[in-house]
Design goal:
heterodimer; A: 121 residues; alpha/beta; 19% strand; B: 401 residues; UDP N-Acetylglucosamine Acyltransferase, domain 1; 2 domains; nine-stranded mixed sheet; six-stranded mixed sheet
Chain lengths: 121, 401
């Protein structure tokens, strides 16, 4: 079973993602900020990461730099409602960008695509 | 005008220059009596109008930072000019720079903040004079994404360099990192085009390729990984050093070993050195602590202070000793009846009475006691000092003799 790490500071969204992705048959890990995500990366060994940008403690951009330096090939989806993020060079290290929404259709599609791509690597 | 930012890689250990690099990074190693190796690259930058400069330091950087602070606080911040030494900060990951590409990637926030159009990546390890404006103009004229500075070298040196293969239009079609069997220059089977470690990048392409490189199995090095990945995919060109060489002598040295360091220094005392430090059109800037003028003293039977075919810096006192074919950094003292030949004496070295020094490099502030001989019995010297295969003795900093 593929394991997805959801990094999101807002509790209601985190629970929504967790439930929906479990419903899709994924194993789900969660983290409330970048620092927890780095810890989860080491202990939980996820196959894909969904990463919010604006978070307390450690934001998504800083976490992204650390994630790609540690686990070079793990796919990362930046998930945000903040539109200016592409100005930040580090955001270019993500594999996909999905605007935050309660409708997870697009997010689920990207997850499938990236996990599929990972298999063919 | 395009906004250019220089990133100078000054973090190399310079292991083959040991013990000169025991207490300092290679760019901080003294050269040519009053300079440090880094002064050449930085002088090239400021004379080329590239005056937004970050110096990426890493190992043993204290001496380098001090030199930059003392000697290079010369640019005008209100005009947007600066030279800033940035130590490795582990901003992105908890390791030191893994390769030249990683050094830039770890400082991606600098590119983010500065947003230059072009990034000029340089090494702080080399001695040469070059007008980078010529290379930048070439880069723009070709519509390049990356331009690599190249110089002709003898084929037999191929194991030491990245070897560039370019077509008649100077487009790069191949790159081999330190190959056994190099591609030689068309019509010049004894020559290779060697990469000088000088790169002009369009910023956006640089960032994209660095990120790609970071996310792959790689040694994160421009020569080994990033340039080969870009050839055939991006617009990559080679720039012939001769087009940008100030003075037109073709002089470029990587003083990577003690032997090469010694030879490059000694070249300066020849009648017409290849590297002309007396050309005021492209002065090499540096820092020198204020010192009084050099002087010689004593002129009596058997005791005459002399220096022949030598470079003598400020603050030196040649007091009744003899110096031949040597380079004296500031504040060197040569006491009566001492003899110094074919040697490099760094700042503050003190050669006692009757001492004899031949083919040696004496590091800063070393006191050679009266009567001691160095460079005459190499097997004895080798018990205490580094002695190279060609017999150059290096007396390290801080030693008590």
């Amino acid at each position: 079973m593929k394991k997805i790490l959801v990094v999101e500071d807002e509790e209601s969204l985190r629970l929504l993602y967790e439930e929906e992705l479990k419903g899709e048959g994924y194993d789900v890990l969660t983290a409330r900020n970048g620092r927890e995500a780095i810890r989860q990366l080491e202990t939980g060994k996820p196959d894909l990461i969904i990463l919010d940008i604006v978070m307390p403690v450690m934001d998504g951009m800083e976490a992204l730099g650390r994630i790609v330096s540690k686990e070079r090939k793990i796919p990362v989806i930046l998930n945000t409602s903040y539109s200016g993020y592409r100005e930040n060079f580090m955001s270019w290290a993500a594999d996909a960008y999905v605007t935050k929404s309660h409708d997870l259709t697009e997010l689920k599609k990207k997850i499938r695509e990236l996990l599929e791509k990972g298999k063919n690597r | 005008m395009k906004k250019v930012l220089a990133m100078v890689l000054a973090g190399g250990r310079g292991e083959r220059l040991y013990p000169l690099t025991r207490d300092r990074a290679k760019p901080a190693v003294p050269f040519g009596a009053i300079y440090r190796i880094i002064d050449f690259t930085l002088s090239n930058c400021v004379h080329s109008g590239v005056r937004r400069i970050y110096l990426l330091t890493q190992y043993k950087s204290t001496s380098l930072h001090r030199h930059i602070q003392f000697g290079w606080s010369i640019l005008s911040a209100p005009l947007g000019e600066f030279i800033e030494a940035v130590p490795a900060q582990q901003r992105i990951d908890e390791h030191w720079y893994q390769g030249t590409g990683d050094a830039i990637f770890q400082n991606i926030n600098i590119l983010q903040d500065e947003r230059p159009d072009l990034v000029l990546i340089l090494s702080g390890d080399h001695i040469y004079r070059m007008d980078y404006r010529k290379m930048i103009a070439f880069h723009l004229e070709k519509g390049a994404d990356l331009t690599v500075g190249v110089i002709r070298m003898d084929r037999k040196l191929c194991r030491e360099f990245g070897v560039v293969e370019a077509n008649a239009d100077w487009r790069m079609v191949g790159f081999q990192e330190k190959p056994e069997e190099p591609k030689t220059i068309h019509g010049d089977p004894g020559g290779i085009m060697a990469s000088m470690g000088i790169y002009v990048f369009n910023t956006e392409i640089l960032v994209r390729r660095l990120i790609e490189d970071t996310r792959s199995d790689s040694s994160h090095d421009f020569g080994k990984d990033i340039i080969p990945m870009m050839i055939g995919r991006d617009q990559v060109f080679a720039f012939d050093f001769r087009r940008g060489d100030y003075g037109g002598t073709g002089y470029w040295r990587d003083v990577g070993t003690i032997e090469a360091y010694y030879e490059a220094n000694m070249d300066l005392i020849s009648v017409t050195p290849q590297l002309n430090l007396y050309d005021s059109g492209w002065p090499i800037l540096s820092y020198q602590a204020p010192s009084p003028p050099a002087k010689t003293v004593w002129i009596e039977e058997g005791r005459v202070g002399t220096a022949l075919n030598s470079i003598i810096s400020n603050g030196c006192i040649i007091s009744g000793g003899n110096v031949k074919r040597s380079i004296l950094s500031p504040r060197v003292a040569i006491h009566s009846f001492a003899e110094v030949e074919d040697s490099i004496l760094l700042e503050g070295a003190d050669i006692g009475r009757n001492a004899k020094i031949k083919r040696a490099i004496i590091d800063k502030e070393v006191r050679i006691p009266p009567g001691m001989q160095i460079g005459y019995q190499l097997d004895e010297d080798a018990k205490r000092f580094t002695v190279t295969t060609s017999g150059i003795v290096v007396v390290p900093k801080g030693i008590r003799l």
